[in-house]
């Protein structure tokens, strides 16, 4: 219980202490970057005016081991003094020329390395992605050696005539975003960072340590030692390098308190894009915005909008307010709202409320609620780019908005529950199987066609510690009995509700109550079990809180 209380106290504090310059006790950057580079070009090929080379360079000498890094390097043919960026693969997957050639087509020189992981073309064989390990000496932790490899990757780019050494950036996804955040604070030669999903502030909670609930092995003392040694956000107050984060509100690996801590510690220009209810995936406009940020910082393209923190006005009806400024044309504003206090970061639902946009200010009425909630303001521009404020906790009781038994109404299946054309990208971009679709729909144009056997529906989001009701419409090709099952784990504890339903050849509504317990980490799945030799159409899936009213 004591460990849980300490972790909860950390989680309730998004920003942590006020940023101030911090000492460097782990990375001797001048010494690490002064070792011989020993660069080699293994091969070179041209395709469509883009040159792609396979290269190696020396990273470090670790005891008896010489650690040498393999990478792809791409640039437009004949290039000289171009801006450049290093791309860090999601999951630190082996390097491919996909992103380097993508960068070259945008007018960059781009590099993507094999991190020194076991079985990779780089040597070293450090188990970097096995977890967030610290050990007795941070300089022996696997994560340390990945950072050294990236220090030398910047040195490699500076050695190339195709690259302007004063215009080097870094971007990456997931583990790649983790390292991008770390390197922006560590390497003064970088001029920009763009992070998809990954961040620092991980002492405040993450899936590796807390995915089954608070881990007693990660004591407050351990978390503090991590925070001041290898955590990517620790060094951000030491640099004015522009950095941006692009992520879903409920990323399952890098939780929202960690992201907010990273954002708050960045001392230079910074940007935040929060996509409601998207986990570890982004829409196409946000994918583009990642590289538009690099264009602003490394090519001098028109800047992004800048938004102020969201505040709550108590004059008259309580309203959220934030402002914006910048050269891009704003076309809409939204307030994102998620019910419930700290916790359940990967399973929360974020409701989108329309906001008024006028004279570079945005306002939205705050709803009544029996529980606290979190809000974030968003401005959208003409390109579909998102500009988000840091998250703010709102206490309805303090604003005279507390109504017992009431939550702001929401639908935790709203991203996919109708299986319509505009909802399918959500399923695809999360890497989930898209069910067969049928034009026989209860509402709209399409429904899901479920075959015999067990089908797991896409993720359902909502508040924990509150009773909800899942419902959907189904029809079968012949009368049958099917099973509806809602089950998952909350802080490692299993929870299951299931019920059988008789279904005929006409549309029938079925449903099941579900009360997910309050938890730091949790989630559940909805499965439908169809008997052999049959098929079922499913449409209009909804997951809503059970309340005494709907404000």
The biggest beta sheet is recorded as: 9 strands, mixed
* CATH fold-level assignment of the largest domain: Rossmann fold
**What's the CATH first level of the largest domain?**
Alpha Beta
The side-by-side strand order for the widest beta sheet comes to 1-2-3-5-4-6-7-8-9
Can you walk me through this structure?
With 551 residues, this protein is an alpha+beta fold. The chain folds into 3 domains: 2-13 and 26-304, Rossmann fold, CATH 3.40.50; 307-399, Immunoglobulins (Immunoglobulin-like, Sandwich), CATH 2.60.40; 424-545, Galactose-binding domain-like (Jelly Rolls). It has 10 helices and 28 strands. The protein has a 9-stranded mixed beta sheet, with helices on both faces. Strands 10, 11, 12, 15 and 16 form a 5-stranded antiparallel beta sheet that branches. The longest helix is centred in the N-terminal third of the chain and has 18 residues, at 142-159. The chain starts with a helix and ends in a 6-residue tail after the last strand. Mean pLDDT is 94; it is low at 1-13.
